[in-house]
Amino acid sequence: MRAVPPTTTTVPAPHRWQFIRVGGADQVIFRTGEDIARLGELDQKLWVALACPTRGIDFDARTLDLIDADGDGRVRPPEVVAACEWVCARLRNPDVLLQGSDVLALDDLDAGNADGARLIDEARRLLQIQGKPDAATLTLADIADRGELLSAMRFNGDGVITPETAHDDALRATVSEIMRTHGSVPDRHKETPGVDRARIEAFFAEVQAARDWHAKADANDTTLMPLGEPTLAAADATRKVQAKLDDYFARCRVAAFDAQAMTALNPSPEAYDALGANRLDLSADPIADLPLAPVTPRCVLPLHGNRINPAWTEDIAAFADRAVTPLLGARDELAETEWQAIKQQLAPLQSLMAERPDNAAAALPLAQLDAFLQTRHALLALLHDDEAAETHNNLLVDLEKLIRLQRDLVVLLNNFVSFKAFYRREGAIFQAGTLYLDGRSCELTVQVQDTARHAVLAGLAKTCLAYCDCTRQGQKMSIVAAFTAGDIDFLFVGRNGVFYDRQGRDWDATITKLIENPTSVAQAFFAPYKKFVRVIEEQVAKRAAASEAAGQGTLTGLATKLTTADQAAGDAKTPAAAPRTAGRVDVGTVAAIGVALGSISAVLVAIFGKFVDLGQWIPVALIGIVAAISGPSMLIAWLKLRQRSLGPILDASGWAINGRMKVNVRLGGMLSQTAHVPPGARRVARDPYRERHGTTGVAAAVVLALALVVLAWRMDWLDHRLPAALQHSPTAAAAAAPAPSS
Asked: Are residues 49 and 84 in the same domain?
């Protein structure tokens, strides 16, 4: 016996990916369709994002809905992988996905695949319907508006039959009756009301039950049906008033037995008073509970006129027309004996009425029931044909999904698996538009639903963020803009700008919340000095306001004294206080001010002297002073700029960012561009409103020049140019001194 060699399984070689290092993370590059087809093999730790919302981003919402298999409004890696595998399985060459076209060539579909072959057949069927049987391509515009396609089809696959679907009058009458008794459902096309399988089957079940009951009520049996088919109507009319008629004749017999009981058997005045106290409704229970007519010993019920209880007028009239007149003949009154005769004639049918189905079809005549039953087979056949069309409808959805993925899938991968679109500044799907404010443009803008909630997490991005409310023609939305370059000195809540969305529409933008963070190390260098100047300005403003208030108080008091001087002079008995001599100066105050100024001058002179004594170390001292002031601010700014990232901003908007996605200084300078005069332009005139400093600039220049001269003299840089007496070097001064006489 020959040995069977063991079966060997070929393990596919691992796919070779290509990555690029950008934003502090390795990001995959999609070069071929095979990269897309084998996306499931890529470790999800290397994906930039792990989830994104289907709304609030600049991406086709319908495409995202087709990818979002569970319909929860979020797209995750398994759904992205499933979409890639689904579309690649139906194409001969997945490389066509890299083109991003919304035109599907039928030759690109894989005819050797069962799913691809079905799509080819459905595409040709669709082109045939549109009058283009020889076309070799199918566009998204051909299939996007499925409503127009469905309008051209008698059956649209939704399982709903409308009166327009039925081409026969009998079928239309049956559909209308089903909608009347069992309600309707909207058709997929134009929301036309129709009936579905559940309503059709329920209706015919009721009609069949009513028809089976009619079979027991043989119209030829004179004992059971003395009037023939109209006996059913007579029995229905009698059943509605039977209890009330029995009550009325019972009261009349008691009144005939004893006339004194008539008062108690008829409604009392108090009962009518209670009725009159409320708003009367003839169909209300209090009126319906009254006797059919005034109770008298005659035991006769009037069938017409105003003596009938208003709540029962219609029912008594129907009883008279359908039962009394056909059985006893026309009359205006009904005696008790005649009422008993009617009940006796209808008694055989009343027992059968207890078995009558309780549905709307039971009240229909036998001929109409038979007419409905004759349409059952044809109506179910229409329903079957419509349901069979659902297969074509599903294939239409698959064609739409295929074309949309061919157009949008690569864009999604470059904004989800990697952030190629963002780092190449091609317009990422999360970027809402461009904000122009404070002499710069901010491209990193994200749409925000809840500003307060977003700011809690987005503040961890170490980025200067400005939340803005944008309004346009009654519309409103909120965005957050990242200021990654320039200064932030004039960014404050309430400042206005203009926002342009991705469609080019302009919105009025107003800052509502600001998260301050440094935008550069250079800005951090000047920040302490700006804060110092700001504090001085605030203190000076406070002191000036206090002095102004005090001066106003003094003037007010002086004006009050002047206006009341005549009253004070007339009162000779009241000794007046000695007036304070105007312009008198307190000698002690002047002395104290002089001592203080002298002390401050002495300290400043001593500090300047020590500073000058440093000699060649003066530049080092200046650098040390500047480093002590600006160093901490620059260090903090440098640390924050190294931590500045995109992740928290997107995480707060519903994304799940897998990497840190750094935004360094170079990228930040591109995302927030400040205003610059374009190359080749020139200024044709000086600013006529520029600041004119007068002698201030000259004085500052003189002081700076003197400081440089003193520094050069202390550093011995001028000894070879100065006379020996003015040279600072001790050796040169000693050589220039005359020899002492002997």
From this structure: yes
Measured between alpha carbons, how far is 437 from 491 in angstroms, rounded to an integer?
Answer: 9
- pLDDT tens for each residue of 653-678: 999 998 778 888 888 888 888 888 88
Tens of pLDDT, residue by residue over 536-558, are: 777 777 877 777 787 787 778 77
- In the DSSP assignment, the letter for residue 440 is E
Cα atoms found within 13 Å of the Cα of residue 51, Cβ hemisphere only: 10
DSSP label at 516?
A: -
Q: Is residue 359 located within the same domain as residue 396?
A: no
Distance CA 77, CA 425 (A): 24
Number of domains composing the chain:
2
Residue 325 CA to residue 141 CA, distance in Å, equals 70
CA angle 615, 621, 622 (to 5 degrees): 110
Residue 437 lies inside a defined structural domain of this protein: no
d(CA 316, CA 312): 6
- The helix or strand, by DSSP H or E, that contains position 237, with its residue range, turns out to be helix 231-257
> How much is the pLDDT for 1?
44
Claim to verify: residue 312 and residue 407 sit in the same structural domain: no
Q: What is the mean pLDDT of the chain?
A: 82
Note the pLDDT of residue 511: 95
Q: CA dist 323 to 235, 341, 355, 467, 531, Å? A: 7, 11, 21, 81, 104
Instruction: Give the residues across from 161 on adjacent strands.
Output: 195
SS (HEC) of 377-420: HHHHHHHHHHHHCHHHHHHHHHHHHHHHHHHHHHHHHCCCCCCH
Distance CA 2, CA 181 (A): 77
Q: Which residue has the tokens 């007579």?
A: 234
Q: Tell me the pTM.
A: 0.65
Domain extent for 29 = 19-152+391-420
Rounded CA separation 246/367 (Å): 34
Whether residue 214 contacts residue 366, with contact meaning beta carbons closer than 8 Å, is answered with yes
User: How far is the C-alpha of 84 from the C-alpha of 412, rounded, in Å?
Assistant: 11
d(CA 174, CA 161): 11
Confidence of residue 582 (pLDDT cuts 50, 70, 90): very low
- Alpha-carbon gap, residue 518 to 297, rounded angstroms: 106
